[in-house]
Design a protein that fits this description.
Strand content: 15-25%
Radius of gyration: 25 Å
Number of domains: 4
CATH superfamily of the largest domain: Alkaline Phosphatase, subunit A
Number of helices: 13
Shape: globular
CATH topology of the largest domain: Alkaline Phosphatase, subunit A
Distance between the termini: 56 Å
Number of strands: 25
CATH architecture of the largest domain: 3-Layer(aba) Sandwich
């Protein structure tokens, strides 16, 4: 059946049934193309239609008006965990990703990802932008089911694993592991590549899957000047102006992509998803954003203006990114697929989450489910046939530690309740989210049976998602897939806290965004921590240690370099003005712990500074 016949059948179905039911079971069509657009650190209230008359998002607003919108959809409170759940259909704890650094953001390869499943089902696959699930083999997107990739390193442009000196303007990114320079602003690059991918595949007999994972509006907050000016002219503080400018720019690119799909005649049978990875990063308590006067003063002044009087900041929710209160994890989700009956405005308030997207998309693509545990459920019966979801209990946790703990912040969610646990602070709260969406009144004492029941469900869930332990993932070195392997301090293991790991944005232009906590300038404050590695082949290796990355050409300014592998040290002198030191070592196939540092004595204890980068080359 051709696409025109399918559309006629769908139209007839809609005309005859729409007066009775808002849903209609459509005839089977070709597998849809699939595009997921996921922004970074854009909260539910950072979209114009969600009670925010200040941020300019006309294209996202239009998409929402032509899609099924979910008003009760949840991610994890931070980046990597959300991404792991999206790509595996599992809770991030079960997927083995519960932090964004410290080697705990590496997505274990035993999982069959969404991309791998779609690839098996005949899809061409690509991802562009932010990966944040491992910068080395075997954790890279090209190792996890994506045939074409173009990414920045780490969790944000300019973080430690990124190409040295990147600022979002005229940067170097990694195309299937190889460095390549671009002239455009980062968000433009990701959408340029997506459109090129569409051009390559729009006439193919195979459907395509594009995962467009943006770095915007994650810090460092930087945007083209014309977009920033729009918000400065509205009276916004500079940091908020930069943040919203990034959102408006990406909104423009969403419109550009949709226009491309329309132009090519493939919009109707493209299943387009727009969502974000966690709650808003623009916390109202940010001093660097709202200054000494603070948020309350700013908000009181700006809402005096008639056009902004109805602004409800953060959609009235409690909490922001990294919080297990609603504002930390409830995010927008819009699903547009006209050939699948999802081309008109409809809002659903069902409790749903990131773990549901993989089974939903596999269902839409008529793809095989994997044999692994899938925590989510397909939403297609709800979306297309109006089938009611069974009552469900869902969980969001924010671990951000090396070894997960039941005492870390967690929320247990049902349609009515939010049971919030902060074990480290001996705090337990229960909120009736239907009556109290801002989570102002703790009703735990009024509903002790509910609290007890949800506590029991939390205990069962925790035992389930941690049953396989908390093993550390190992970067593979000496492989034909990545030789040399470039290691960065973001993946150091055994850190007692995230303050011991160098990850925060740096490189240049610190005045443009909040970068005061950058590891740059604090190099001597970091401990000597190891990388956990798996040597794939017994061979001779060159191991090069750098204080700052190789392209930085930054002098070490120490007298000796120390390489330690499984407790055995090797010391070499540092020549004047050298930016790196090369060691030669025979490595045997198997597991090793490696660390390196520089010092002013051969014992390696005087004036110590770690090697934040290392390159391992099998010779």
């Amino acid at each position: 059946m051709d696409s025109l016949s399918i559309k006629k059948l769908m139209t007839l179905c809609i005309l005859t049934v729409a007066s009775v039911l808002p849903f209609c079971a459509f005839a089977e069509s070709d597998k849809p193309n699939i595009i997921i657009i996921m922004t970074d650190d854009q909260g539910y209230g950072d979209v114009g239609i969600n009670q925010n008359p200040v941020v300019n998002t006309p294209n996202i607003n239009q998409l929402a008006g032509e899609s099924v919108s979910f008003s009760n959809f949840h991610m994890d409170p931070t980046c990597s965990p959300s991404r792991s759940s999206l790509l595996t259909g599992q809770y991030s704890m079960r997927a083995g990703v519960w932090h964004t650094i410290m080697g705990r953001s590496l997505l274990p390869t035993e999982h069959v990802t969404l991309a791998e499943s779609l690839q098996t089902a005949g899809y061409k696959t690509a991802m562009f932008g932010k990966w944040h699930l491992g910068d080395n083999y075997p954790f890279r997107p090209e190792d996890q089911g994506f045939e074409q990739t173009l990414i920045h390193g780490g969790g944000g442009v300019g973080q430690t694993p990124d190409y040295w000196g990147n600022t979002q303007f005229g940067d170097t990114y990694f195309r299937n592991g190889k460095a390549e320079r671009f002239d455009a602003y980062a968000t433009d690059v990701w959408f340029d590549e997506t459109i090129n991918f569409i051009d390559e595949n729009k006439n193919s007999d195979k459907p395509f899957f594009a995962y467009v994972s943006l770095n915007a509006p994650h810090s460092p907050w930087r945007a083209p000047d014309s977009y920033v000016k729009e918000y400065l002219d509205k009276g916004l503080p500079k940091k908020l102006a930069l943040y919203y400018a990034m959102i408006t720019h990406l909104d423009e690119q969403v419109g550009r992509l949709r226009a491309k799909l329309e132009q090519d005649g493939i919009s109707d049978n493209t299943l387009l998803i727009f969502t974000t990875d966690n709650g808003s990063t623009m916390n109202s308590k940010r001093k660097e954003a709202f200054g000494k006067a603070g948020f309350k003063s700013f908000f009181a002044d700006i809402t005096k203006k008639q056009q902004y009087k109805d602004w409800v900041y953060n959609a009235g929710m409690k909490g922001y990114k990294a919080s297990v209160y609603e504002g930390g994890h409830r995010v927008p989700l819009y699903i547009h697929w006209p050939d699948g009956g999802l081309g008109k405005s409809r809002t659903l308030d069902n409790l749903t989450a990131h773990i549901d997207l993989m089974p939903t998309l596999l269902d839409a693509a008529k793809a095989e489910k994997t044999g692994a545990v899938i925590d989510g459920a397909s939403l297609l019966p709800l979306l297309q046939q109006g089938k009611i979801l069974k009552p469900r209990t869902m969980f969001v946790t924010n671990q951000r530690v090396d070894i997960p703990s039941k005492d870390r912040p967690t929320v247990v969610m049902t349609d009515r309740w939010r049971y919030v646990l902060h074990g480290e602070h001996n705090l337990v709260e229960l909120f009736d989210i239907q009556k109290d969406p801002s989570q102002k009144v703790n009703v735990k004492d009024q509903f002790p049976k509910v609290a007890k029941q949800l506590q029991g469900e939390f205990e069962q869930w925790w035992d389930s998602v941690t049953e396989n332990g908390t093993k550390r993932q190992r970067i593979i070195v000496g492989s034909d897939h990545e030789n040399p392997a470039r290691l960065t301090g973001m993946d150091w293991m055994e850190a007692s806290s995230e303050r011991e790991v160098p990850w925060f944005p740096g490189f240049s232009r610190p005045q443009d965004a909040y970068e005061g906590a950058s590891w740059m300038g604090r190099e001597t404050k970091f401990p000597r921590l190891p990388w956990y590695l798996a040597v794939e082949q017994t061979a001779q290796y060159q191991i090069a240690l750098y204080l700052k990355d190789k392209p930085a050409s930054h002098p070490i300014d120490r007298k000796f370099a120390i390489l330690e592998i499984d407790g055995k040290r090797q010391v070499l002198p540092v020549t004047k003005l050298a930016n790196g030191v090369n060691f030669e070592r025979a490595l045997t196939k198997g597991h090793i712990k490696l660390k390196g540092w520089f010092a002013d004595d051969e014992a390696g204890e005087k004036n110590v500074v770690p090697a934040f980068y290392a390159y391992l080359t099998r010779k």
